Amino acid sequence: MDYKLLVDERGKKYLLKKSVEKFCTDLGVVETKEIGKRLESHLGHKFYLVEPTLYDVLKRMKRTVTALLPKDIGFIIARGGIREGETIVEAGTGAGVLTMYLANAVGRGGKVISYDIKPEAIKVARKNLLRVGLIKKNQKILGLDEDFEDDIEVEDGLFNVILKFGDVREKIDEKNVDVIVLDMPDPWNVIENAKEVLNKKRGRIITYLPYIDQVKKTVSKLKEEGFWDIETYELMERMIEVSDKGVRPSTRMIGHTGYITFARAPLEE
Ligand SMILES: C[S@@+](CC[C@H](N)C(=O)[O-])C[C@H]1O[C@@H](n2cnc3c(N)ncnc32)[C@H](O)[C@@H]1O
């Protein structure tokens, strides 16, 4: 990743580019050369400097759309059985948040081909993915007639994401796909294409939708096309506050975000 994470003694976090050697905060100036150290500002305040996790990065990165939250991403990966080496087709890319976790889950031996119909969205996602080492320096967005000249290069990246400007309702170019993940408004219009390209032995489809009416339409279409093992879930997230007074759930929680539907690809007779 092209980042390092500076945390002050109050727990406030700053995501810095790797090249930053000195950083100014309200608690003083800190030398930020050595990652993996406890540091002190010129005013005597304590800081930590570490490598950020993907979670640290995505909380602070630029978004043009509503991105998926960790509670849903985690379940998509776990219940979806996404593993090392798999080929995933995703739509839409959006901010690229889900893309990042999918790419890390499939690892160096796998790949994520991510489609979006909005050039602005996919270009923002491209920048985000470049910084965390999932696409290569100057890598093109397939289907867009545009060259990119990047000034950063991540050395230890996975580089396993391919970005495509395209509409998955019209065409999915890939064959023998292990998993199709759809975070877009009308996945029922993609199901026939998905059926064509999913691997018959292990192919799965996963959809993420905010409205129950969309889920109903999607599940009907999945059944009509012969998909099976169909299940829909909703997850709630509640933080626990631990203080000297006691331990209790936070009064605020993340309630509804979206419904996640899982299904297996149809089998031939
Ligand atoms: C809610 S965003 C996805 C957010 C993404 N999962 C994330 O975590 O950052 C939905 C995206 O789907 C794209 N989209 C909608 N319909 C599409 C289609 N038919 N094919 C490809 N992308 C599509 C939109 O342009 C939008 O960027």
Automatic annotation (TrEMBL):
For this UniProt entry, the molecular function terms from Gene Ontology, in alphabetical order, are:
tRNA (adenine(58)-N1)-methyltransferase activity
Q: What does the entry give for GO biological process?
A: tRNA methylation
Name the PROSITE patterns for this protein: SAM_TRM61
Keyword S-adenosyl-L-methionine listed? The answer is yes
The alphabetical list of record keywords is: Methyltransferase, S-adenosyl-L-methionine, Transferase, tRNA processing
The record ties this protein, via CDD domains, to: AdoMet_MTases
Q: What is the lineage of its organism?
A: Archaea, Methanobacteriati, Methanobacteriota, Methanomada group, Methanococci
Q: What Pfam families is this protein classified in?
A: GCD14
* Entry superkingdom: Archaea
InterPro entries referenced in this protein's UniProt entry, alphabetically: SAM-dependent_MTases_sf, TRM61_C, tRNA_MeTrfase_Gcd14
Q: Where does S-adenosyl-L-methionine bind?
A: 116, 167, 183
Taken from the UniProt entry, a GO cellular component term is: tRNA (m1A) methyltransferase complex
What are the residue boundaries of the tRNA (adenine(58)-N(1))-methyltransferase catalytic subunit TRM61 C-terminal domain, all occurrences included?
66-243
Q: What is the protein's name according to its record?
A: tRNA (Adenine-N(1)-)-methyltransferase
